[in-house]
Structure formats: structure tokens, C-alpha cells
Amino acid sequence: MYLFCKISAYSLTWFNNNFGSTSFYFHCTGLYCKLGETAADAKFVVRETNVPSALGSNQVKVQVKACALSPLDIKLHEDLKFQRDLVPVGREIVGIVLQVGPKVTFFQPDDEVVGILPLDTAMSGLCDAVVINEHHLVQKPEKLSWVEAAGAIRDGLRAYTALHTLARMASGHTLLVLDGASPFGVLAIQLAHYHGVKVLASALSSEDQKFLEQLRPSVGVRESLVARVIGVWDAKVDLVDSCLEETGGLGVDIVMDSGVRLHEEEPEARCLLPYKHDIITLLGVGGHWVTTEQNLQLDPPDSRSLFLKAASLSFLNEEVWGASSARQGRYLHIMKDIVEKLSTGTLRPQLEDPVPLYDATVSMEMVQKKQVRKRLVIQL
Which is an annotated GO molecular function term of this record (predicted)? Predict the structure, then answer.
């Protein structure tokens, strides 16, 4: 079933003649997550929503050309108490500006833009058109494709937040990227290498290891992006020993995890994750650990080890950029840099083939269950 927007010309003319056009809405159908009692009960459904035709002062209406799908953090929505049964799906969008509000200064109609809908948006990015504040958008370079722009903007933002904002990455540092073959991991590796950082990466399978070993800065360059690939899928390989061997026993300056093993008995999908003690052990003096593990807890001995190394721990949550207007300028600067590096080939995202609109529901179910390895983009 195709998603669609519909608007009645007769109704619009009648409404404008009688009341003016300032409060008119048109209907747009998009993809939403219907929340249940638990996260496992959530279902993805197609629903109709209202999009205002009259824009606010700094709002922009964008015709969506492509939208990336990322797993929905249902717990985060519950924590923020948005109090809604339907959560919009698809926030990383790219498209063409159709209309701008009276105080918009960055864009004009027909501009090609890319951005991320705010966390509290009521609109799905899979609508034909969305309304968004201009401060959540940046210009898309002409030679950058719709699919690449949508598929990389969120992972690029996460990589910048982790490496620049939290870890204060600098040339000469050594970085360990856990699960380096993930969409986030690949962009983090490319960004770190660009800034002169020595990169180590873990691989969760023999296929991932082969892929990482073949990563190059650009076509025709023989130099590898990754100084050492650590195949943690092989029981004979020890993550800590490999990192200490590669750094001469000094440890790495930055660790970026993709989750942490919290208990001895974990689901099979988490069995290859490192223990927190292992990460602390392989950290060097003054090192930075950037974690995506929301439920991480440190025991007193772990905290003592971090203290003795003068090391730091940061939680990666890229949603904080939308929490304060004071960070808006830096947020836009990061997104502009991401799309520029995408257009020059410095960043090259790992994407699945574009998916048509009618497969959006099934595709999102696969994304939510983490059955898709590469980033998935819906092409409208």
C-alpha cells in the first residue's frame, strides 16, 4: 500500500474564501509505532495525520525524497513522558523545500535539504511532505544522492558526538571501535582516520573481519583504514591482549562500544559484547570510554580503576542536540560538515539497497528487531 497525501481543491477554495488559509491542514499518511504494554508489544501501522498548510515563522515545508529507518528507542519516549500511543517512525529525511515561513533566512523554495525531525515531532518522515523548523536542516550538496544523505546523517551525528564532543579526539590518538562493521562503526572509523587517529576495530563475524580489512580511505588507495581488526568471533582471540599488544602495553586512548555485556548469561546476540572490566583494562592513562549501554553500572572497584587511570566515561545520546537551543549552532555545524564529507567521499556509509515505500512497514519491523545489518533507506 502506497503512502500518500491528499488535499481537496474544492475544500481549500471554500475554506480560504470563508476563513482564510492560516489554519488549514491537509492530510498526510505515514508510518507510526503503536505502543503496547511492553516494547515487544509495539506494532508498526500506517496512519493519517494532519500537516498545517500555514507555516510558523521559522518553519519549512519539505517534500520528502528519502527517509532512513533507525530502531525506535521506546524507553526514551517513555522516560520523556510524551504521553502518546502513536510514535512517528522515520526521522532522518532529505528532500526539496516547498514553502518557507515568513522569518526563514537559511532556505528558499526548491532548495535541497537534509535533516533530522525532532524527537517530539508528530509527523512521520515517511509522509510525502513534512513541516520542520529551519534549525533542524542543512543544505544538501548537489552531487550527494538522496539515499546517501538520509542514510548517513544520523550515524554521522553519532560519530561526531562520540569522537569530537565526548572523547575530544586528536591526531595521534589510538581508537578502538567495537563492532566496527556496523553503520555507526564504519563512519566512526572513517572520521577518525581522516583526523589522523590510529584505529583498531573488533569484528563480530568472519564476514565483518574481511570487510574491515578491506576498508580503504578511497578507491585505489592501498592503505587500510583499520590498523588492526580484532576478530572477537574467534574464541582464541582475546580483545584485551590484542589491544595491549598493538599499543605496546599502554592501552588505547578512546573506546567506543556498541553495548556492554552486563551478566554472565546473556542472549546469544549479546554474547560477543565485552565486559566492562575488559574495557577499563584496555583503556590507557587519561583515556575516554564512550558507551551506548544505557543501563551500565560501575562497581566500586571499576570506579577505582578509572580513577587510577584518570580516565573518563561518557554516555552517547545524540538526542541531546535537540534538548537545548544553546547547542543549535554547533549542531548545524556538525550536520554541514557531515554532508560535505559525504559529498567528497571522505565518509561512505554502508547502506542496503533503497526500499520502495510500500515495503516500509515490513522493513521497519526488521530494523526494530535488528535483523538488518546495514542502514536501510526508504525512497519516496
Answer: oxidoreductase activity
Q: How confident is the model at residue 219 (pLDDT cuts 50, 70, 90)?
A: low
pLDDT tens for residues 24-54? 666 778 899 887 766 667 788 888 877 777 8
| Averaged pLDDT, 334-340 | 96
- Nearest Cα residue to 322 out of 311, 335, 303: 335
Cα 167 to Cα 34, 175, 259, 314: the distances in Å are 36, 10, 17, 8
Contacts of 71 (CB under 8 A, 6+ apart): 367, 368, 370
How many residues are listed for the chain in this entry? 380
Mind giving me the DSSP string for 52-86?
ESS--TTEEEEEEEEEEE----HHHHHHTT---SE
174-177/198-203 β-pairing: parallel
CB neighbours of 309 closer than 8 A, spacing ≥ 6? 251, 280, 283, 284, 285, 286, 287
Angle, helices 328-344 vs 146-160, to 10°: value is 130
Mapping DSSP to helix (H, G, I), strand (E, B) and coil, where does residue 263 land?
coil
- Residue 14 clears pLDDT 70, i.e. is over it: no
**Three cell numbers at 337?**
560538515
Q: Name the pTM for this structure.
A: 0.88
Q: Looking at residue 39, what is its pLDDT?
A: 62
Distance of CA 369 to the CA centre of its chain: 16
Burial environment of residue 346 by CB neighbours within 10 A (0 to 12, 13 to 18, 19 or more)? middle
Distance CA 45, CA 127 (A): 13
Instruction: Give the span between the Cα atoms of 183 and 351, in whole angstroms.
Output: 8
Q: b/e for 297-320, b at 16 or more Cβ within 10 A?
A: eeeeebeebbeebebebeebebee
Task: Report CA 53 to chain centroid distance, whole Å.
Answer: 29
- Residue 142 in grid coordinates: 548537489
